[in-house]
Amino acid sequence: MLVKNKTFGIISIKGGVGKTTVSANLGIALSQFGKKVLLVDADFSSPSLGIHFGLLKPIKTLHQVFKDKITVHEAIHEYAENLDLLPSSLIANKPNPYLLKEKLAPLKEIYDFIIIDSSPTLNDEMLATIVASDEIFVVTSPDYPTLSATLHAVKT
């Protein structure tokens, strides 16, 4: 049985390993099991989660939420039954790593699962995902340099 009201952070140490695809597919799969899912794009340097769902240039994004121009509820895009998206846009000045957790907090009672797609770099963007998550999934590829970097990052 799946536990409800969980936030999963999907991270990787290297880009191009399928992190965003894993995030999207996990969200779709859980929603098809009747779970209410929110997918959050927390890759502020190169947001692309929305592209997987045909949301190319969203007007309301997490960026406006961080600047307190709109509420987090206003930035959510309904995609399908049980599946909503909270897209991002390029953010030049990276937000405080604890801000994501603060902005997502009221949504934990609404969604069974919140899935955060992170930046593929060890920086404040990834830290924001880690801080806001109950569980972390690390996506990697099976080549030695990527595995080595991933193991090193996990140990530090």
End-to-end Cα distance, whole Å, is: 33 Å
In percent, how helical is the residue content? 25-40%
N-to-C order of helices and strands: EHEHHEEHEHEH
- Overall 3D shape: globular
Radius of gyration, in Å, reads 15 Å
Tell me about the biggest sheet?
A: 6 strands, mixed
Any guess at the CATH architecture? Answer: 3-Layer(aba) Sandwich
Number of domains: 1
Question: Beta-strand level of the residues, as a percent range?
Answer: 15-25%
Main sheet: strand order: 3-4-2-5-1-6
Describe the 3D structure:
It is a single chain. By secondary structure, the chain is of the alpha/beta class. It has one domain: Rossmann fold (3-Layer(aba) Sandwich). The chain contains six helices and six strands; from the N terminus they run E-H-E-H-H-E-E-H-E-H-E-H. It has helices at 19-32, 62-66, 72-75, 99-104, 124-132, 144-155, and strands spanning 6-11, 37-42, 77-80, 83-86, 113-118, 135-138. It has a six-stranded mixed sheet with strand order 3-4-2-5-1-6, with helices on both faces. The radius of gyration is 15 Å and the shape is globular. The chain starts with 5 loop residues before the first strand and ends with a helix.
